[in-house]
Design a protein that fits this description.
about 0% strand, about 90 residues, mainly alpha, 4 helices
Length: about 90
């Protein structure tokens, strides 16, 4: 899914980004790097990074895609975590 949306968002962002937008994107990217050992914090910074890129496009529709994508991705991560947890604990599946 990301491979579909990210090129669409980054191309206009690259041509329209302001100095303030660029500073925000860089700040969010650095926060992601600093949080690399904390998955929950990393995910929050990743979402903020993608919102910043979306805003830099100047396109309100594209700016709204990252939050929706993050909701979907976080749900998928929770589901996979539950499956792995049950499998690891030996809990019987019906």
């Amino acid at each position: 899914m990301r491979r579909l949306f990210e090129p669409v968002a980054t191309a206009p962002a690259a041509t329209r980004i302001t100095d303030a937008d660029l500073a925000e994107v860089e700040r969010r990217l650095e926060a992601m790097r600093a949080a690399r050992d904390d998955v929950e914090l990393l995910n929050r910074h990743d979402a903020a990074f993608h919102r910043a890129v979306g805003r830099a496009t100047g396109n309100e529709t594209l700016a709204g895609v990252p939050p929706l994508w993050n909701q979907f991705l976080n749900g998928a991560i929770i589901i996979v975590g539950l499956i792995i947890s049950r499998f690891a604990s030996g809990e019987k599946q019906d």
